[in-house]
Amino acid sequence: MKILITGATGFLGSRLLWALHHEGHDLTILKRSCSDTRRIHDILSQIKVYDLDTCDFEQIFTTTGTFDTIIHTATCYGRTGESAADMLDANVLFPLKLLQAVSSSCTTTFLNTDSSLAPNLNFYALSKKQFRDWGEMFAKRGSIRFINIKLEHFFGAGDDDSKFITHIIRSCLQNIPDLQLTPGEQRRDFIHIDDVCSAYLLLLRKAIDGGESFLEYELGSGNAVTIREIVETIHRLIGSKTTLNFGGVPYRENEVMESRADVSALAALGWSPKIRLPDGIRQTIELERTNNSL
After folding, report:
1. Is 28 strand, coil or helix?
2. Which residues partner with 115 through β-bridges?
3. Which residues pair with 30 in a beta bridge?
4. pLDDT, tens only, 216-248
């Protein structure tokens, strides 16, 4: 299968790229010339690479022709000082330009990585919802099949420090003096990156068989635990000396107190998560400890 991937240097995108490369697909990625390619360095010479800041979409499709599927994982969370306009550009305008380009090139399927967050939570969540709506409109006009994946909180070794579980694990491994946390009563659905990838690969295979023009799936473990419980579990498994200060920071405005994926649609396709949360946390701790010599 001929596949174009955005966000391939990120955590999710790189793991999908490796899995698809292992399966023997014809792969092309979009990145920036300044992107950190450490996660995909070993296979970079075996795939087609285009730098968005040195070429345009027309050049890409003129050179490579039609793709069977686009997998869109690129995103801007707004965690490093990006403005609302920056997030609009990265999360709406960029993928919209891509969607417009591929819908006129006979590409059949667009797999979009959406967020489970409510759009009124922050600019990031709002921008993700806005692009999802654009995708649905394109699909219902018959331009392309759009598969929207509402992704819960995924984790695994090697993720960015801005991600919650990675941040907690590294902080506890380093025995920082204290962690300032909310009261931790929010319930979240955490899913291991390997289970996320298995769901994407299944949806990719199913897309070959056709189907409705717009499909949406919630992707998570289907279970939710409190933030306090997950932090205390990580702290205990590491044996960390870090002081956990629950209540040290307030909840965000419009904080979601429970988020849990309804995985029934994926289950109907034969998918289920294989890695239990405690096992995934233990594995991530050990790999983080080894990779960072902590």
Report:
1. strand
2. 151
3. 6, 50
4. 999 999 999 999 999 999 999 999 999 999 999
Q: What angle do CA 145, 134, 147 make, to 5 degrees?
A: 30
CA distance 265 to 12: 21
What contacts 123, CB < 8 A, 6 or more positions away? 78, 84, 87, 88
> What gap in Å lies between CA 114 and CA 108, rounded to an integer?
19
The pTM score is 0.95
CB 95: neighbour CB atoms within 10 A?
A: 23
Nearest to 64 by CA among 49, 44, 46, 85: 49
Unique residue bearing structure tokens 């667009």: 110
Please say whether the beta carbons of 146 and 138 come within 8 A: yes
C-alpha 210/C-alpha 207 separation (Å) is 5
Tokens of 168: 């907690």
Q: Which of 219, 162, 161 is nearest to 190 (CA)?
A: 219
114 Rama sector, left if φ>0, alpha if ψ -120 to 50, beta otherwise: beta
Span 165-224, pLDDT tens digits: 999 999 999 999 999 999 999 999 999 999 999 999 999 998 877 778 999 999 999 999
Phi, psi torsion values for 258, nearest 5 degrees = -150, 130
Domains and CATH numbers, the chain: 2-151 (3.40.50.720)
What are the residue numbers of the active site? 124
The structure tokens listed for 292 are 């960072």
pLDDT in tens, 253-281: 989 999 999 999 999 999 999 999 999 99
CA angle, corner 149, sides to 145 and 152, nearest 5? 175
pLDDT in tens, 20-41: 999 999 999 999 999 999 999 9
